[in-house]
């Protein structure tokens, strides 16, 4: 909650990518929805989590295993340049790099 509301400082209409849709990721999604994020892309290697994540506010899903290119390239293409904020909930260094690389300052 603190990182999503206080650090990310999402504005109405924000585009957000959340990496991993476990308990922490779903809480993050719900908190991103509160300030009216208009687009929330969930990234997870477990496609079974996607239906549950919809209930929390995820609008689109990406399973990195479904692509032959890095997930950050997929999300940048989906958003025509990147998202305003990306929140990584895995603790994995590669996910951190991907999360960083899918952000663009002006995308909405």
Secondary-structure topology with pairs:
Elements: H1 2-7, E1 15-19, H2 23-33, E2 39-43, H3 50-56, E3 60-62, H4 71-78, E4 85-88, H5 93-101
Parallel strand pairs: 1-2, 1-4, 2-3
Subunit structure: Homodimer.
EC number: 1.1.1.1
Family: Belongs to the zinc-containing alcohol dehydrogenase family.
Question: How would you characterize the overall build of this protein?
Answer:
With 108 residues, this protein is an alpha/beta fold. The protein has helices spanning 2-7, 23-33, 50-56, 71-78, 93-101, and strands at residues 15-19, 39-43, 60-62, 85-88.
Give a brief description.
With 108 residues, the chain is of the alpha/beta class. It is 38% helix and 16% strand.
The main β sheet shows up as: 4 strands, parallel
The first-to-last residue Cα distance is 23 Å
- Beta-strand proportion: 15-25%
User: Portion of residues in helices?
Assistant: 25-40%
Order of helices and strands: HEHEHEHEH
Contiguous helical run count: 5
Q: What is the strand tally?
A: 4
Structural class category = alpha/beta
* Coarse morphology: globular
Uncertain segments: none
Using only C-alpha atoms, the radius of gyration works out to 12 Å
* Spatial strand arrangement across the major sheet: 3-2-1-4
Mean pLDDT: 87
Main location: cytoplasm
EC number: 1.1.1.1
Keywords: Cytoplasm, Metal-binding, NAD, Zinc
Family: Belongs to the zinc-containing alcohol dehydrogenase family.
């Amino acid at each position: 909650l603190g990182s999503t509301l206080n650090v990310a400082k999402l504005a109405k209409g924000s585009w957000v990518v959340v990496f991993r849709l476990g308990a922490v990721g779903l809480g993050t999604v719900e908190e991103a929805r509160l300030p009216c994020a208009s687009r929330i892309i969930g990234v997870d290697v477990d496609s079974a989590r996607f239906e549950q994540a919809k209930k929390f506010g995820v609008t689109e899903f990406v399973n990195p295993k479904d692509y032959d290119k890095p997930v950050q390239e997929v999300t940048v293409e989906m958003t025509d340049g990147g998202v305003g904020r990306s929140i990584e909930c895995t603790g994995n260094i590669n996910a951190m790099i991907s999360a960083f690389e899918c952000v663009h300052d002006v995308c909405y």
